[in-house]
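Case study 2.
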Amino acid sequence: MSGGADATHATLITTLPYSDADTVPTTAGLWYKYVGTSFPNEISVFAYAATLATQRLRIYSPDGVTAYPPLETTNFATSRPLQIPVVNGVTYYFNVYNQVGAYTFSVIAGPNEIVPIGSIFNSDSNGGWPLALLSGIDGHPLRYFHPFPCGESGDVIATGVDTGRVLVHDRLVFGGDDHLKLYSPQFELLADLDYTSGQAGALYPIRAHRTNKIFYVGKPEDPLNAGNSSVTTVTSAGAFGPTTWNFSAAHVIFGIAPSIDETILYTTRVSTGVPRVVGRWDLVSNVGLTDLAAAVSNYRLDDIMVLADDTILVAYKRLTANVTPYILRYDTAGAILNTYTLTGAQSEDVRLAQAIDDPVSFWVWTKTNATESLSGPTTLNRYQNLRVSDGTILSGFSVPQFNHGVYIGAKSATPIARFGSASSCPFLILREAINPVFLYNRLSGVYQISLGKTNDTYHNQLIGDGTAGSGTTNVKIPDPFAIVPTE
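Prediction:
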């Protein structure tokens, strides 16, 4: 069915997948609309014009004039897929516009797969976009969670009774509230902690201790410490710890990682405006120590992490793009044990994450312009699992980025992917599996035999998904109706 002439007459999309082909008669374009259901919670919308250079797609909700997501007032896609989170009962309007001419249009549902242990957590640094959970085998999206905090930092409890709990910073500058948010392994909000510094663009580094079920959290600029850095802890129960370490003016933090015995906090310390030095802070005496490693000329430090064997990983990248980054592994005396050169990666972002088998291996996330049997200018997220002892790549894959929901790849009628994750940020490896969303609206065909029974028994069958508008109906044997997901 052709698109409507305006938002009031937008063509209603009732089922997914949906596809259409039409011709835009004026630059104002044509309109479609979709009303969210309980599932999917993420959809991909794709308007493609083979012969038009600037045919565009933009999205509005809950009406035809309000940009969606709310912070994306100027966002649009040009013949590329655009993925968005959707909410049950809310209407979303799609406007194909800007050039007169033919186009194709399609909308498909997002994934709803089992999320196994070892999957990749990749939330967005921009507000209004969802958390993406990716396969740890090939990087394809498994599930999305929305709403979810935007930001640059987070970590996960790796061992103990609270394994899998995640703490993230909801960054103020991109639509967050500057709080720390603690989530269960199933991404239920457990605690919301006010940690505001008053600095609009503040990045609060977060690192979980390997065994002690606490998170170390830092403020690069703390007004309660005369604008100098400070660090405290958050328990896996969602409470601030009893101690705050106030750093000196000379020790401005960017990244942090506690030693296994929690006597030393390793930091990526700022020097001449950017993090260049691997610093150390005595957590027992609350004083600065000598640096673990000096600055490397023309490089900055992008991440730091302590492995379970108490060795320290530090990610180095150039101050200019497209120069190969690398990772150094230090012992506690500052001796270099390994150098891992990230061949093929850009010096843009280098993020580290603990592997399930830490300290045998670790994960690293980098960016690359496509050369792996793909043609540029597609920009890819590259995830690799490296063996600690020698840097062997145990597994690795590259997948397209979706920035502000838009596919960052070459214009094509057949893009590499319709769904993906953002270019930034937090990067974690999940410790607990998550089941898919089940919709209980189909008979299982399972029979239950009751010996000696001669009358029919009626049972309540659940219709719908348990939300508003759902209900039950009386049905005879067979019973029970086993839980079976719809397709």
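The chain has three domains: 7-109, 120-429, 438-487.
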